[in-house]
Amino acid sequence: QVQLVESGGGLVQAGGSLRLSCAASERTISRYGMGWFRQAPGKEREFVAAISWSGDSTYYADSVKGRFTISRDTAKNTVYLQMNSLKPEDTAVYYCAARPYTAAQAMATLYLEVWGQGTLVTVSS
Hints:
This protein is mostly beta strands. It is 0% helix and 49% strand.
């Protein structure tokens, strides 16, 4: 089964940018839909962004549209989340997830079994 490791989190001021990375094991992302989720203290985990298994479509939560971009590099077996114009409400632990042969929009609602350990993003005012 694919294993995922997130990195790139940190502390940034409002309006700043971060790029998160999700490294997948054994050249697997070409067969997996990949998504980013986040969980803030006291809140449920929520969907952020996803890219289809084929890489030909993406899907975003309304709260991040126009600010975040998901992409992948199959040669590096890595999925990225570029986060621009960060807001304090973006503060959360960010997780990546994978599901075989899954479309981007479906990643937001279907049950996902494979998750990374998470990386913390803190946005200060």
